[in-house]
Design goal:
The chain has seven helices and no strands. It is mainly alpha-helical. The protein folds into two domains: 80 residues, no CATH class; 110 residues, no CATH class. Helix 4 packs across helix 5 and helix 4 packs parallel to helix 7.
C-alpha cells in the first residue's frame, strides 16, 4: 500500500477492518515464510544442478543438510535437559519479536523492516543503559545467585506474563493503527 491508488483500492475492499488486517497479517507472515522456504529450496536445487557442471566431484545440498540437522536437533532436544520452560521462553520471545515487527510494519510506511530494526536496537540500547544505571545505584542488590536460583520459576513466569502482555499490546496497537489508516497520510509513518 505504498501508493495512493493501492491504498484506495485496499480500503474499498468489501471486508471489515479486522478481516483486512488478519488477511494482510497472514499473507505477510505465513505467505512470506512459505515464499522464503520455497525460494531457498528452488535456489538450492538449481545450485545442486550447477554443481554437476562446475564442480564435478563435489555435490551438496543445503536443504537436505538443514532438514537432517533439524530432524536430529529435535531428537537431541527430546533427550537433553531443555525443559518445557526453556521451550516456552523461546516461544514467548518469538511471539514478542513478531508482534514488535508487526507494529513497526504498521507504523512505518517507508522501509518498515529497517526502521523497526533500528527502533528495536535503539530501545534495547536505552533499556540496557537504564538497567545498567539502576544496577550501579543498587536497585538490583537483592538479586544474589541464591535468591535467583530459589525463585527462578517465578522470574520465568513473570517474564512470560510481561512479554505476553506487551505482545498483546503490540498486536492491538498495530490493529488500531491499521484501522485508522487513511488514503492520504504522512510520508514516513502511517498516522
Amino acid at each position: 500500500m505504498k501508493t495512493k491508488i493501492k491504498r484506495e483500492n485496499f480500503l474499498m475492499l468489501p471486508a471489515s477492518n479486522l478481516e483486512k488486517y488478519l488477511g494482510r497479517l497472514l499473507n505477510i507472515t505465513v505467505g512470506g515464510l512459505l515464499l522464503t522456504l520455497g525460494a531457498t529450496i528452488i535456489a538450492d536445487f538449481i545450485q545442486f544442478l550447477f554443481s554437476f557442471i562446475l564442480t564435478p566431484g563435489l555435490h551438496t545440498s543445503i536443504t537436505w543438510n538443514f532438514l537432517t540437522f533439524i530432524g536430529n536437533g529435535f531428537v537431541e532436544v527430546n533427550k537433553s535437559a531443555l525443559d518445557f520452560e526453556g521451550m516456552l521462553f523461546m516461544l514467548i520471545n518469538a511471539i514478542f519479536v513478531h508482534s514488535f515487527f508487526t507494529l513497526g510494519a504498521t507504523f512505518f510506511r517507508k522501509h518498515p523492516i529497517l526502521s523497526t530494526t533500528f527502533t528495536g536496537l535503539l530501545l534495547m540500547l536505552i533499556i540496557g543503559y537504564a538497567i545498567n544505571g539502576l544496577g550501579e545505584v543498587g536497585v538490583f542488590n537483592f538479586l544474589d545467585p541464591v535468591f535467583v536460583n530459589a525463585y527462578s520459576h517465578a522470574f520465568i513466569f513473570a517474564y512470560i506474563i510481561i512479554f505476553l502482555v506487551i505482545s498483546a499490546f503490540n498486536y492491538w496497537a498495530s490493529y488500531k493503527l491499521f484501522t485508522r489508516m487513511q488514503v492520504i497520510c504522512n510520508k514516513w509513518i502511517n498516522i
